[in-house]
Amino acid sequence: MSKRTLDGFLGRPTVAKKQRLSSTLSGNISTHPTYPFPIPHLGQELGDVVAFSPAEDARVINDQPDLDLLYFQPFIQKTIVDDLFQFLRSQLFFYRVSYKIKRGSFETQINTPRFTTVFGVDESSRFNETGDLVENATKKPIPKDRYKNCQPRPIPDCLDVLRKITEGCTGNRFNFCLVNYYKDGADSISYHSDDERFLGPDPAIASFSFGAKRDFLMKHKPDKDGAAVPPGSKPLKLPLDSGDMVLMRGRTQSNWLHSIPKRALKSGESDKGRINITFRRAMVVGGTENYYRYNVGSDGVVFKWDDAKKDMLPWKGDEKDP
Ligand SMILES: O=C(O)CCC(=O)C(=O)O
Ligand SMILES: [Fe+2]
């Protein structure tokens, strides 16, 4: 893997923060009929620095049974991670999804303990230049009933920039972008693996962190009889910081579980929000239906960051002039 850093860049960008944010917002925007509101492009100043990723070479972590990780600390230059975090938190739209699951004759309501959103479509389809869904292979319009329960959304430019860089430096391809927002230490994701069949065998998943530092815990799955994990495998704790990226690949998803546990607030922490972005590749229609069901949901309530209230609040539509 080649090391591309700002070293090769002619002079470090010394853009004043105010100037950087205003140029960010004056750039182009991504629009689509499925978006509740348009999403600005990153803007040149942030985009230029993001282009010089990864900031550091990856550490390979494969010294345990079935584990294969690349750990970039960081992947994104530290000079822009705060701005990038603020940008993504304030410009994306989120959902707080709840759904019912049936266990035997009991129905349980699950409230996802974090904000989520998702963009992308599986390998059967793609978005053409005008934003319409077409057959990936033939570029002809897809049958109207291909997606019965969701309306796939194209990955907006500000996230697609990151997707392309990630593809370039990992050699993997991605068609989905899932975003989690953990508003504080009470938001979490419990132990799971991303090993759904719609991802195909041994999927590679790239996972970015922005904002508050959180622990990423991993442990080997028990064997089929529920017996202890293979001898020699020890639980792992990666303290994910803003700008870090973990690539999980090979046999990792089929054999290991991962989580972001709840954590107590440390005193003096001013901003405890964290954004996680994962890039994945779904192979079939069922993957698209699944991702929109669990990351957008069906209650229609859109959340947007309110910078005055410093909170993710239900979005009531654009304020109209009186
Ligand atoms: O927030 C993270 O770092 C992990 C998120 C995750 O595991 C997932 O979305 O499947
Ligand atoms: Fe996961």
UniProtKB/TrEMBL annotation:
It holds the Pfam family 2OG-FeII_Oxy_2. Residues 173-283 form the Fe2OG dioxygenase domain. Gene3D superfamilies: Alpha-ketoglutarate-dependent dioxygenase AlkB-like (2.60.120.590). InterPro entries: AlkB-like, AlkB-like_sf, ALKBH2, Oxoglu/Fe-dep_dioxygenase_dom. GO terms for molecular function: broad specificity oxidative DNA demethylase activity; cytosine C-5 DNA demethylase activity; ferrous iron binding. 2-oxoglutarate binds at residues 180, 182, 192, 258, 274, 278, 280. GO terms for biological process: DNA alkylation repair. Substrate binds at residue 195. It comes from the Eukaryota. Belongs to the alkB family. This is Fe2OG dioxygenase domain-containing protein. It comes from Corymbia citriodora subsp. variegata.
